[in-house]
Design goal:
With 530 residues, the protein is of the alpha/beta class. It has 22 helices and 9 strands. Among the domains are: 85 residues, no CATH class; 152 residues, P-loop containing nucleotide triphosphate hydrolases (Rossmann fold), CATH 3.40.50.300; 94 residues, Alpha-Beta Plaits (2-Layer Sandwich), CATH 3.30.70.1070. The strands form 2 sheets. The chain has a 5-stranded parallel β-sheet with strand order 2-3-4-1-5, sandwiched between helices. A 4-stranded antiparallel β-sheet has the order 7-8-6-9, sandwiched between helices. One of its GO terms (molecular function) is peptidoglycan binding.
Length: 530
């Protein structure tokens, strides 16, 4: 599958307007609370500090987004922003050329650029020079930018470098004697900010945070270390893995057509041995007669034509298994592989009758007698006195009545252990609905509740709900193989209403940092718990 087709499948599966986790999404602006003070600090330092300002953070930490916010929040009447990139032009000549073109300066030199900055200052305009990918600047470019930041007595541009932490080492080498720059290090998102970031990304693409469970959001936050670039990659990978898993489940093979190869080979070998044994048995070409004793019938498991032709392998009926007299009971060997091939369907599912019921043929069968003999009457006890030497050839017609009657008790006695495992899942299924699960199942998936907390003790959950009363309730989910009882509050028509309700909760409840989540996400966890 090509990358283009993979993207189309991804968008179609989740019904997205665009890839919510693409590196550059037009119009997307997420600015968490912790970044607002950083933005204010940059504006303050630009006005009152004479130092070059450096913003550092790892790849995908949101440096470019902060640079965009800085440009967007400046007064366009009094500030002219010049944005350049060091990618592919990291030397002094490349950087100064970009600055000169933006300021309409003929010569790409530090002196000529400073003269233009002074002329703009006389008209009441300041110059913000912002450099992206600054970690790619070489020593000559850093020296030129430090000179621009120092400026002239009449005026100076405010220089901002946005780059990875490796940028600092080069600046320190050029500033050994005096302080020439100030560094601001970005911090990763907290888990709540990661949740809000994911929600805004998904909502921009036409969906919502309900695509992720609370456990998945925690895993995404831990795996990404809270850096937005990593969050995009981890979240997208998680959605693609879930899509592939769901599609694989839909394409699961039907029962009985994909039996494991080793079982097919084993059954084939048994059939061949049975056929060979039939050929080697003494008296196979003799004419059958009536009156053979019962103890001679076990020697002839395969039928033979009435005219002494080649022996043939026949079935006792269209729905009965082929007998395997040399192996014993073949049906129990087949049962496990067939269930696995059916994708986990057990006996009794989809209308498949259970062993031992009235609709199941016996698991031990015998071969139907040849057509020429089957039409005749059944043998009578009067034939028993025939001498033993002549009975070897005449024993073939007699097996049908006696062996069919003898194995019959076997399948009746064996279903008891088989049916017990089938009954156990039914008991588990009855216990699966979580506490309060019926209430959540009856609500609109688009509604929202406020998740208060989760506890491994159902008694604690019950005590909390009883103490708070009102609109508090809880449900049971499974986290890392262990039960978790999640307490929620209220039922709201949209996310904004749920957010407003959080502010009105008691201080004790707000201490647990409750957050809004969709009813659809709760219903999904309840379905998974089953």
């Amino acid at each position: 599958m090509t990358s283009l087709h993979a993207d189309e499948a991804f968008l179609g599966h989740y019904q997205l307007n665009h890839d919510p986790f693409a590196p550059r999404v037009p119009g997307f602006k997420f600015f968490p609370a912790q970044r607002k003070p950083v933005l204010g600090q940059l504006h303050h330092l630009a006005r009152y500090s004479q130092l070059l300002l450096v913003v550092t953070g790892p790849l995908g930490s949101g440096k470019t987004l902060l640079r965009q916010a800085l440009v967007a929040s400046t007064n366009k009447q009094s500030v002219q922003s010049v944005v350049v990139s060091a990618r592919g032009a990291g030397d002094a000549a490349g950087v100064l050329r970009q600055v000169a073109q933006s300021l309409d300066v003929a010569q790409a030199e530090v002196g000529a650029i400073l003269k233009q900055v002074v002329q703009l200052a006389l008209t009441g305009q300041e110059v913000y020079l912002l450099v992206d990918d600054a970690e790619q600047l070489d020593e000559s470019a850093l020296e030129a930018l430090l000179a621009l930041a120092a400026g002239a007595p009449e005026g100076r541009p405010h220089v901002f470098l946005f780059g990875e932490p490796s940028l600092i080492a080069g600046l320190e080498q050029l500033s050994t004697e005096e302080e020439r720059f100030h560094v601001i290090e970005l911090q990763p998102y907290a888990e709540e900010e990661t949740r809000e970031y994911l929600a805004q990304r998904l909502e921009g693409a036409g969906r919502g945070i309900e695509l992720f469970t609370a456990n998945q959001i925690s895993e995404i936050h831990e795996s990404s270390d809270g850096w937005p670039g990593n969050i995009n990659q981890v979240a997208r990978d998680a959605m693609i893995e879930a899509m592939i898993a769901s599609r694989s489940a839909v394409k699961r093979p039907s029962m009985g057509f994909n039996m494991p190869k080793k079982h097919v080979l084993a059954i084939s070998a048994v059939v061949l041995v049975a056929v060979a044994a039939a050929w080697l048995l003494p008296g196979r070409n003799k004419t059958p007669t009536t009156g053979a004793p019962a103890n001679e019938q076990a020697q002839l498991p395969l039928g033979q034509g009435a005219n002494g032709g080649a022996p043939s392998v026949e079935f006792a009926g269209n729905t009965q298994p082929m007998p395997l007299p040399l192996v014993g009971q073949s049906q129990p060997v087949m049962r496990g592989p067939l269930a696995e091939a059916a994708g986990g369907i057990t006996e009794g599912d989809d209308g498949v009758p259970l062993e031992g019921s009235s609709s199941v043929p016996p698991t031990v069968t015998t071969i139907a007698p040849p057509s020429g003999v089957a039409a005749g009457p059944a043998p009578t006890p009067a034939a028993k006195p025939v001498p033993a030497p002549t009975q070897v050839a005449t024993a073939k017609p007699a097996p049908a009545p006696t062996p069919v009657a003898k194995p019959a008790p076997a399948p009746v006695a064996k279903p008891a252990p088989v049916t017990k495992p089938v009954e156990k899942p039914a008991t588990v299924a009855k216990a699966a609905p979580a506490a309060g699960g019926s209430w959540y199942a009856g609500q609109k998936p688009g509604n929202y509740v406020v998740q208060i907390l989760g506890t491994s003790s159902e008694a604690a959950a019950q005590s909390f709900v009883k103490e708070q009363g009102g609109e508090y309730r809880y449900f049971k989910k499974v986290l890392n193989g262990k039960p978790l009882y999640v307490i929620t509050y209220g039922n709201f028509a949209n996310r904004d209403a749920a957010v407003s309700a959080i502010k009105a909760l008691p201080a004790k409840v707000q201490a647990g940092k409750p957050w809004p989540r969709s009813v659809a996400s709760v219903q999904q966890e309840l379905a998974t718990a089953r």
